[in-house]
Design goal:
mainly alpha; Endonuclease III, domain 1; 258 residues; globular; single chain; Endonuclease Iii, domain 2; 54% helix
């Protein structure tokens, strides 16, 4: 905690009031419920980001954080980076664990070439050799089969996740082998498009935060959570903006493998 406190003072963030009520600390920052036609307060935490709410979130963050404002000014709004909810997207995210996005995309496309449309039943019908050829490691083969069986047998209802809050979705997903916090958070952020999800274990995101906040070292997940508290209730919007910075080809410093 001492290191986190020092880090917060370095970047000018005060934690104590934010842990009580971040909306009140910022004198009423814009939330999804404030946007005409958006979800009301009791359901705002379930409402997926839209182009409109993404734009509102970006403006709110830019008004609060000059570093994020600079990214927005220099690079423009980030993409939504949305993915369709469901089994294929979860398989794709599992493939992205601890490898480059390009490598995971190539493996996913090889999988679709032999099992399209991708369903749990089709996945379970593939033998070890087919999955290895597609690019699945032995471990990810186990993860994929466990997920496919859970969905096929009704132990995991992906459609029902839409009606659960972020914490409940995360708990439901990580109860299954091969799905950890990072995988659950990326699914929440990209597939369910929840506005306040923050994948604190994402290495690319941590690298972007280190660069943008001019930190001496890549922040730990706990430090990432502390830093992101100032960006509630738009942490998923901040993540997209920081990923846009990370992917900017003008960056010359060493980049971690995200």
């Amino acid at each position: 905690m001492r290191r986190i406190g020092c880090l917060m003072r370095r970047i000018g963030v005060t934690l104590s009031p934010l842990t009580v009520s971040p909306c009140h600390v910022w004198n009423g920052p814009m939330t999804i419920a404030d946007i005409p036609g958006a979800a009301r307060p009791h359901q705002a935490h379930l409402a997926p980001l839209t182009d409109e709410t993404l734009a509102h979130g970006l403006r709110d963050l830019a008004n609060r954080d000059p570093d994020l404002a600079q990214i927005l000014t220099e690079l423009g709004p980030p993409p939504m980076w949305a993915r369709p909810p469901g089994f294929p997207t979860l398989i794709h995210i599992i493939l992205e664990q601890q490898v480059s996005l390009a490598s995971a995309r190539a493996a996913y496309e090889r999988l679709l070439a032999i099992a399209a449309p991708l369903t749990p039943a089709r996945f379970l019908a593939l033998d070890d050799a087919a999955l290895k050829t597609a690019g699945f490691s032995r471990q990810k083969t186990v993860y994929g089969r466990h997920l496919a069986a859970a969905v096929e047998e009704g132990r995991l209802d992906l459609d029902a996740l839409h009606d659960l809050d972020d914490a409940a979705v995360r708990a439901e997903l990580i109860a299954h082998k091969g799905i950890g916090p990072w995988t659950a958070d990326i699914y929440l952020l990209m597939a369910l498009r929840r506005p306040d999800v923050w994948p604190s274990g994402d290495l690319a995101l941590a690298g972007a935060v280190q660069n943008v906040k001019r930190l001496p070292a890549r922040p730990t997940p706990a430090e990432m959570d502390a830093i992101s508290a100032a960006w509630r209730p738009w942490r998923a919007v901040a993540a997209r903006l920081l990923w846009r910075h990370y992917l900017n080809p003008k960056r010359t410093e060493d980049q971690p493998n995200g």
